[in-house]
Amino acid sequence: MPIGMYFALSAVLFSIGLAGVLVRRNVIVLFMCVELMLNAVNLTLAGAARMWGGPDGHVFVFFVIVVAAAEVVVGLALVVNIFFRRGTLDVDVPTLLKR
Amino acid sequence: MPPLAQASDVAQAVAGTNVAEVILFIGFGLLAVGTAVAVVTMRNVVHAALMLVVNLLSIAGLYLALQASFLSIVQVIVYAGAIVVLFLFVIMLLGVQRDDSLVDVDRRHVAGAVVGGLLLAGLLVAGFVGTYTTAASRCGDQATLTADDFRAGRVGCVGLDHLSSAAAEPTDGSSPDPAQGPMTGAEFLGERLFTRHTFTFEAAGLLLVVATIGALVLGKRHDTDPADDPAYEPAYEPPLLDDFDDFDDFDDDRLDGDVDGPGADAMLVELPGEDA
Q1: How many other C-beta atoms lie within 10 A of the C-beta of residue B152?
Q2: pTM
Q3: B35, B156, B181, B222 — which has fewest CB within 10 A?
């Protein structure tokens, strides 16, 4: 399989995730769309690692997964806090920094 | 290159590859794109999370097609097994009825996002197709690769599993040490992770510890005064004294500071033996 097909697929997945981040307002769905984008980039990295023949791309993917896990843990804790304070999951509602 | 010639070039390159990989790619690729669209468009958050599970699993399948078996396993364990469970747990904690609907989203935003996403996808795909889809960038012809090719850098387009076994072969042409055996992909990856990328590995460990402590601090229940929050709107205002028309109706207990319930004296428990 030409490796460009994997790149094209991950470009499509990344764009879907980006459109989701722009459209949706529920903060949990927003996080899921960010995960979609991270996975698309991971797929590109794994494809490039196969194309250039080396394990470094796989190591990079490994670290991206670690950072994604940490990001989700902290982000969801923030989401829970915001929900208990504001009573909503809508990202347009908290505008504290706009004042 | 005209698009038609480009398309035939891509088709030729695809036709030359191993059938199993093409089937894996097409199957898991379609599944991944379909479930990604479902994650974005599902109105129920729980359904979106379940679609995300399928999406992550299909990406694990694509890793298998790329001969990255270790990544595939890590993807299933960490993403589908831990991160999505965390998502579902938070959804359960906050209640599923409170999902937003796509209905009240501004139509201009939707149109802008769709156009922007299509534009970005088109540009990226146009950049990749042609450059990386010729027969030269086709993968799957690793059977002829030797250890010398590996050392000379002629290792175009090989999977990690084959690369590691090629790397394990000795240079001097002698037969490989049977006790050692060929390295698997995970072993090769681990060796590289703990030699060249040790510092990054330590930094990732530190990041995980900091994230854990941060989540604990954020999840702690703070007993701060809610009135400090500028957005705080009290649900219940205690009535002022002026609001009462007839002062005689007013319960004396309120003046003692005891708002609801009998006077403070009635709350006292008589201890046995106090009279004696």
Answers
A1: 9
A2: 0.73
A3: B222
- If one counts the domains in chain B, the total is 2
Do the chains contact at A20 and B40, CB–CB below 8 Å?
yes
Amino acid at B96: V
Q: What is the CATH number of the domain that holds B99?
A: 1.20.120.1200
Residue A10 · residue A16 · CB < 8 Å: no
- How much is the average pLDDT of A83-89? 81
**pLDDT tens figures, B200-245:** 999 999 999 999 999 999 888 766 666 666 666 666 666 665 555 5
Stretch B119-128: mean pLDDT, rounded?
84
Higher pLDDT, A58 or B131: A58
Per the CB < 8 Å rule, is B100 touching A90? yes
| Contact between B71 and A63 using a beta-carbon 8 Å cutoff | no
- B117 interface with A at CB cutoff 8 Å: yes
Q: From CA A47, how far away is CA B206, in angstroms rounded?
A: 28
- B32 and B154 belong to one structural domain: no
Checking if the pLDDT of A35 tops 70, the result is yes
Amino acid occupying residue B155: V
B43 touches chain A (CB under 8 A): no
Asked if B229 and A85 count as a contact pair (C-beta separation under 8 A), the reply is yes
Q: Is A22 on the interface with B (CB under 8 A)?
A: yes
Question: What are the E-state strand segments in B32-174?
Answer: none
Where do the domains of chain A lie? 3-88
The CATH number that domain A3-88 falls under is 1.10.287.3510
Residues on chain B touching A22 (C-beta within 8 angstroms): 109, 112-113, 116-117
A29 touching B (Cβ < 8 Å) = yes
Range of B153's domain?
145-220
Q: Do residues B112 and B189 both lie within one domain?
A: no
Asked if residue B230 is part of any domain, the answer here is no
Q: Give the integer Cα–Cα distance in Å for A81 and A54.
A: 43
Asked if B196 and A56 come within 8 Å (Cβ–Cβ), the reply is yes
